[in-house]
TrEMBL record, chain A:
Transmembrane segments: none
Cellular compartments per GO CC: periplasmic space
Membership in a protein family: Belongs to the bacterial solute-binding protein 1 family.
Record localization: Periplasm
InterPro entries: Bact_solute-bd_prot1, SBP
Name of the protein: ABC-type glycerol-3-phosphate transport system substrate-binding protein
TrEMBL record, chain B:
Taxonomy, superkingdom: Bacteria
Name of the protein in question: Multiple sugar transport system permease protein
Taxon lineage: Bacteria, Pseudomonadati, Pseudomonadota, Alphaproteobacteria, Rhodobacterales
Keyword annotations from UniProtKB, A to Z: Cell membrane, Membrane, Sugar transport, Transmembrane, Transmembrane helix, Transport
Domain ABC transmembrane type-1 residue range list: 115-330
Species of origin: Sulfitobacter mediterraneus
GO biological process: transmembrane transport
GO cellular component terms listed in the entry, alphabetical order: plasma membrane
Pfam name, any one: BPD_transp_1
Topological relation to the membrane, as annotated: Multi-pass membrane protein
């Protein structure tokens, strides 16, 4: 992530000076937005820009900029693109406003599913969901007579067969890059085991059998991966798939489209989607959403314009034109074969990512602490104990625990 | 020079140094002894997030910061003494590992792991940079005048490359089936994974650092070579001194002040090694002290950052550099006094 941050330091800016007929109204108030830079955001902000006077900033560094930018008075941006975790700092610092009035006035087309409510107030409007689920090479599994794995034991058995057959470089891929990615992998596994991360007093609760089981599964998977797994992020796994080097991986739904991109992929049409493998309690995955928030430190007039513009960006036309760019929550979306995995994962009961302030610290501690177990420097119980200790130090410093 | 003129010349630079160096330093020093925290309250919140077709609503207890009437987070700052330093150094774990004599255990504590790598990285690359620099300088100096310009230009190129970009290029050349890994695999007829263990990554980092910095040393030494006393060299030749003896007894002593200068600069730069960690994304295996500071400071997705520990870690890095420089500065000071 950090590497990408540096490379993408340049901000792509879409100037909204052209007023096109596609927007239902002509916007006269200056509106600025700051969001992540992936495909779905590009589609949405392009549509917003059609209303005029919209400056959309698509920036991979958004999560580091948003809290400060929205806390300023007046806020530097009107619209923020957030995910469940990145909404937390904006929410807790009170720099985003409740949207109930605006939804009542302009949000007729929103489905109830899109309204993110906190304490009875609508605080964000979601546009898409994302989760990690199983992607696999249908041709390889068929050739070897392997059924689509539904649990991690089956994944490992399948990996062993694929390895024995020697048809790809590595049977498995994984987003195991130290830091955020590796933390997320553990969180998926641990949620699948039915574990909870933090108790009511913000104390960590991961050093238990479920945690050890999760770590052991992660380690078992690495035996079938490229030995450089600790530097492999989503883009790297996506490329491994595209170049035909791996047969299976638990990868983000938002990366699914790239498998059939003829310009990049050598395996067009061969990669199929399935639910994330089951843990003991739930699929080993977590559900994320992306959506918009409106700043509180702006005038009501600006907020109204910003919300209307955002609704234009998230309407049916946009979804129809970009159907495969994401798993949309917006009306008019027709789930294609690429969305099958994400949908199946959710239907089997995958948990939402448990975003909160303390969870942010937990995610960082996990991301930094797990590699010592995978490299063999520590055993599972020690690694978990050390992660808990690192969490406690950081939580104490931020005042969450005494 | 009149004091007024002196002040007019020096004033702007002193002012800028105060603003950009002294005040930030004081602020970091202060923050490393203090802790600024929001005041939290615990509330019950029902949060609804999208599922498929229906929403998932959960009721949970959350700890959120209190806001004042302007919507700002209320914070309080407390003096905590050396607590942040203790949190960085983790001395109890350090002593436990030392008393067991368990080196591998010591290497799982972030600060000590980072210190081990940083020191090794600095001390191993130092002689290599000075040696390679001297070698390049001698080559340039002995090249015929016609090609000297192009040779200087080419040998300076690595130093011109932006550090992070340079580190990334090396990363891509060796990562996975990168060009050079593929070549090495063909040459040794073995399947190699250079990013799968710490020592190969460290080796690549050192190689990168020497490649990047040696031209800087070379250009300094090349400048120094222009002032070597030609008479001494000629008389040495007449006395039958070999090339090696001339180098050891005349050229190197003449360049000594420059060698010390390059050493000081290199120690200061290297102890702050950072681009390598980021460029090679090696944090799973190897971290440096500067990276540790950065990791404390960078906010997680929920916006938490450890400013106090980052400050303490930054102060410790500064102390480390100071300790490394003491012998060299002492020597320079002695020489300086000797000449007067």
């Amino acid at each position: 992530m950090k590497l990408k941050t540096i490379l993408m330091a340049g901000v792509m800016s879409v100037a909204g000076s052209i007023v096109a007929a596609d927007c239902a109204f002509e916007n006269t108030v200056e509106v600025r937005s700051l969001s992540a830079g992936f495909e779905a955001w590009k589609a949405v902000t392009d549509a917003m820009a059609e209303c005029g006077n919209v400056e959309a900033n698509l920036d991979q560094d958004f999560r580091e900029k948003q809290p400060e930018a929205f806390a300023a008075n007046p806020s530097l941006y009107h619209i923020g693109g957030v995910a469940n975790s990145t909404m937390i700092p904006l929410l807790t610092s009170g720099s985003i406003r409740p949207l109930d009035d605006l939804v009542a006035k302009y949000g007729q087309n929103l489905t109830p599913n899109q309204k993110i409510t906190v304490d009875g107030k609508i605080m964000a409007i979601a546009m898409m969901v994302n989760n990690q689920h199983l992607m696999f090479r249908e041709d390889i599994l068929n050739d070897l007579g392997i059924a689509v794995p539904g649990t991690y034991d089956e994944v490992l058995a399948a990996a062993e067969k694929i390895k024995a057959a020697g048809v790809v470089d590595y049977p498995l891929g994984g987003t195991f890059k130290t830091g955020w990615n590796l933390g997320e992998e553990f969180i998926n596994m641990y949620l699948g085991e039915g574990g909870s991360f933090i108790d009511g007093n913000n104390m960590p609760t991961i050093n238990n059998e479920k945690g050890i089981k999760s770590l052991e599964t992660l380690k078992a998977l690495t035996a079938y991966m490229d030995p450089e797994y600790l530097v492999s992020d989503s883009t790297y796994v996506q490329q491994q798939f595209q170049q035909g080097k791996i047969a299976m991986a638990n990868l983000w739904a938002s990366r699914g489209g790239a498998m059939d991109d003829e310009a990049e992929s050598q395996v067009v049409g061969k990669v199929k989607m399935a639910a994330a493998p089951m843990g003991s309690a739930a699929p080993a995955s977590s559900i994320w959403w992306d959506g918009i928030v409106i700043a509180s430190n702006i005038t009501d007039e600006e907020a109204e314009a910003a919300f209307r513009v955002a609704m234009e960006g998230m309407d049916e036309e946009v979804v129809k034109a970009n159907n495969d760019a994401a798993v949309w929550l917006i009306k008019g979306y027709e789930p294609g074969p690429l969305a099958a995995g994400a949908a199946a994962t959710a239907q089997k009961g995958a948990k939402p990512y448990p975003a909160s302030g303390p969870m942010g610290i937990m995610h960082t501690s996990l991301g930094n602490g797990i590699s010592d177990y995978l490299t063999g420097a520590k055993d599972a119980a020690t690694a978990l104990a050390d992660i808990e200790a690192a969490y406690k130090t950081a939580a104490k410093e931020s005042g969450l625990i005494d | 020079m009149k004091f007024k003129t002196f002040a007019a010349f020096v004033g702007p630079s002193v002012l800028i140094m105060l603003i950009f160096i002294a005040f930030p330093l004081i602020s970091v020093f202060w923050q490393s002894f203090n802790l600024t925290q929001p005041i939290y309250k615990t509330i019950e919140v029902e949060t609804c997030t999208p599922g498929f077709l229906t929403q998932t609503c959960t009721l949970e207890t959350q700890t959120i910061p209190e806001l004042d009437e302007h919507g700002e987070v209320i914070t309080e700052t407390t003096f905590v003494g050396l607590q942040s330093y203790r949190n960085v150094l983790e001395l109890d774990r350090f002593w436990a590992a030392v008393s067991e004599g368990a080196w591998s255990k010591l290497q799982t504590i972030d600060f000590w792991k980072a210190l081990r790598f940083t020191l090794m990285f600095t001390l191993v690359t130092l002689p290599l940079v000075v040696g390679t620099g001297l070698l390049i300088a001698l080559c340039i100096n002995n090249a015929s005048r016609a090609i000297r310009g192009p040779v200087i230009f080419i040998s300076l190129l690595p130093f011109v490359v932006t550090p992070v970009i340079g580190a990334l290029s090396i990363n891509w050349l060796f990562r996975g089936d990168g060009i050079l890994t593929a070549f090495l695999e063909w040459w040794t007829a073995k399947d190699l994974a250079l990013f799968a263990q710490a020592w190969t990554i460290e080796l690549m980092m050192m190689f990168y650092r020497v490649w990047h910095v040696a031209p800087f040393a070379a250009i300094i030494f090349y400048a120094g070579l222009q002032t070597v006393n030609q008479d001494s060299l000629e008389s040495a030749v007449i006395d039958g001194a070999s090339r090696w003896q001339r180098l050891r007894l005349i050229i190197v002593p003449h360049l000594m002040p420059l060698i010390i200068f390059v050493t000081i600069i290199h120690l200061m730069d290297c102890y702050r090694a950072f681009e390598e960690i980021v460029g090679f994304s090696s944090q799973g295996y190897v971290i440096s002290l500067q990276w540790l500071t950065y990791d404390f400071l960078v906010p997680d997705q929920a916006g938490n950052r450890s400013v106090s520990r980052a400050s303490a870690s930054a102060m410790l890095t500064m102390i480390g550099i100071a300790i490394l420089l003491v012998p060299l500065l002492k020597r320079t000071w002695r020489d300086h006094r000797g000449t007067h």
